[in-house]
Design a protein that fits this description.
There is one protein chain. This protein has about 230 residues and is α+β, with helices and mostly antiparallel strands. The protein is built from four helices and twelve strands. It is globular, with a radius of gyration of 19 Å.
Length: about 230
């Protein structure tokens, strides 16, 4: 599944190539998607490339090739009011509003997917919940997220797992956190503070540590549990 921004960028690149035969520049893509920086475009392109929708052509500046488009349902234009917008700034429902069964299981909201790889926009789903033992949770607010990607595999977090997040806006070094980058994209990474900078570390040597200024990263919670289906 593509996020709205990924879908918009893929469509823009495809239409530009169809019309001119030339890939759009980063500046053109930034303006088309109304983003504040080119770094956001770079992350979107990387995400599309990893998902097999585009290919960067070697030895050619700003050369992109569209390999495939989403199916007809995904590419059809929908009214903006029907699009689920990312909104990690919204306060998730906590334990106070969860349903506790007689078996001591807490039902908490499943708020969509979180990337353990290239950051993606968080897709909220208000209709799904997951159960987790109440004895393993604190009295603070919690929510659940589905993991997409493999960058945390050496921490035992696999693609398709469900992580349990305790809501928090701070965390100690070495904690696995939900981090919101540039108020736009969420990712699951290990937190490291390096002087005035914040590093988001993967648990997979195939991925680079990404370093940001402190004003670009907001902690949305820390991981306290994990669910996996076999």
């Amino acid at each position: 599944m593509l996020t709205r921004k990924q879908h918009e960028l893929l469509t823009f690149i495809h239409e530009k190539l169809e019309a001119t035969g030339i890939s759009p520049s980063f500046e053109e893509m930034k303006e088309a998607l109304d983003l504040r920086s080119k770094s956001g475009i770079h992350r979107l392109i990387t995400a599309l490339e990893e998902r097999g929708f585009i290919r960067r052509l070697a030895h050619r500046a700003r050369a992109l090739e569209v390999i495939k488009l989403p199916d007809a349902k995904a590419t059809s234009k929908k009214p903006r009011s029907n699009i689920i917008e990312p909104n990690f700034k919204r306060r998730p429902e906590g334990l106070a509003g969860a349903v506790s069964g007689t078996d001591g299981v807490i039902e908490m909201p499943l708020w969509g997917k979180i990337a353990a790889g290239t950051p993606i926009e968080a897709l909220q789903n208000h209709d799904r919940t997951v159960g987790f033992p109440a004895s393993m949770l604190s009295s603070k607010e919690h929510y659940a997220l589905e993991v997409a990607g493999d960058s945390m595999i050496e921490a035992g977090i696999l693609d398709g797992d469900t992580v349990i997040i305790e809501r928090a806006d701070t965390a100690e070094n070495g904690t696995i956190v939900v981090a919101l980058v540039d108020d736009m994209e969420a990712t699951l990474k290990k937190l490291r503070r390096k002087g005035a900078s914040i590093a988001l570390e993967a648990a997979n040597p195939a991925y680079e540590t990404r370093i940001f200024g402190p004003d670009r990263v907001k902690i949305q919670g820390r991981m306290v549990g994990l669910l996996r289906r076999y």
